[in-house]
Amino acid sequence: MSEQRKSGPRPNAATISVALLAGLATPLSPVHAQDRPLTADFPEVYRVGGLSAPDWAQFTERGDLGFDASGNLYVLDAEAFRVIVINPAGELVRTVGQRGEGPGDFQDPTALVVWRDGRFAVADGRQWAIQVFAADGSHDHFARMNTEQSALAALELRRLMKPHPDGMSLYAQGASDPNRVFAASLEPGGEPRGIDERGIERIDVRANIVAAEAVLQAWRAPRETPLEPYPSGESDGGDVLRVFLADMIMEPRFYWDVLPDGSLAYSDSSAYVVRFVAADGAPLGELRRPFVPEAVTGRMQADLVEAELDQFPRQTAMLREIMEEREFYPEVPIIRWLRATWEGGLWVRRRGEEPWANDGPIDVFGADRGYVGTYAGETRMPSAFGPDGLVAFWEVDEMDVPSIVVKRVPEGVR
After folding, report:
1. What pTM did the predictor assign?
2. How far apart are CA 178 and CA 185, in angstroms?
């Protein structure tokens, strides 16, 4: 089951040879299964935020972060309707945006991407647009969504975006199945449109109307029960809950990031496999470590249902019934997150001690895909990687007030 993947063309012999020569395949042996410990002793460069911070650093939430090639950090503070730019010394460069409807104003900023030359873009769901800004913070233009998309679909389709290194486009992950079903229900006879949450589009934002091209559709575990339609009439709430809790418990998630050459790294199964594709979707090989997914047992299923229920502040008999009806994926996925570094390496988060825990060790791979070592719980996954080893983390204090800490990682793990 861990080796299931989407149907499609198999890699040819040349692709396999390149992968092997590049060290993408790891022999399955106990020696290679052992982690090489790394020490997460990263010096702090600066810290901003917290209760005593100046007004510009009073962050209202933990939003998207991104570095440019000069080491400036860009912060999306969505509830404050602005982007904050911070220099490598931790000082304010500028703030961009306010609440409004004009060029450079935001109504519902949902995502931020930063290109290496300092230009950046913000997705605004209520304006159905991606706003593009110049490196000096001035507004360049609106790149409007295609009006064939419904308002909700346009909003959801652009919540997770990452910059393409060409500086003219970005990658966007699709909307979740429940949200696509809900968006379709708003239109008579509507059907879910656009790519789903396991797909990625490349979006050209140079023109006033975005041009989107599908790049990747990742593998999805087959379901025994098809996705429920969104209820069209009166409902006791159970039908709605079944739509939004339609995924399988322990279903492998889809994690992805962009490498400096524009190729993509992603994980879509329960196995320890990271796959690589070019900007046009052509396969470029795989990276593996020899960890075998654990089988989901009956006792584990009961614990997983309780863990899922714990996420809801108000538990009802109906909610418990729906949770207990949900399907289970038969294996515990190993990979729980991945990020590409500024220089093209990869940090891959593994599962924690409990099946549902996402706080496991972080494996580090160099730009050549060679295994470097593992951080065994001493560090979190950075929210952003920058030049010269800069990494940014969100932190919250005991009062849940957010702040940003920027550190510098050593050359071997960049």
Report:
1. 0.84
2. 11
Closest to 410 (Cα-Cα) out of 383, 357, 377, 373: 373
Identify the CA nearest to 40 among candidates 410, 301, 406, 370: 410
Q: Across-strand partners of 200? A: 173, 216
Q: What is the pLDDT of residues 222-260, one digit of tens each?
A: 877 766 665 666 655 666 666 666 678 899 999 999 999
Residue 324, phi then psi, degrees to nearest 5: -75, -15
Q: Which residue has the tokens 């992950």?
A: 173
pLDDT at 241: 64
Name the helix (H) or strand (E) containing 132: strand 129-133
Helix count and strand count (H, E) for the chain = 7, 26
Residue pLDDT, tens place only, 317-353: 888 888 888 889 999 999 999 999 999 999 999 999 9
CB of 300 within 8 A of CB of 293? no
Angle between helix 298-309 and 317-325 (nearest 10):
140
As a whole number of angstroms, the distance between CA 163 and CA 258 comes to 8
pLDDT tens, residue by residue, 71-94: 999 999 999 999 999 999 999 999
Q: Taking a C-beta distance cutoff of 8 angstroms, is the pair 285, 276 a contact?
A: yes
Do the beta carbons of residue 50 and residue 59 sit within 8 Å?
Answer: no
DSSP string covering 269-308, please? SSSSEEEEE-TTS-EEEEEE---PPEEPPHHHHHHHHHHH
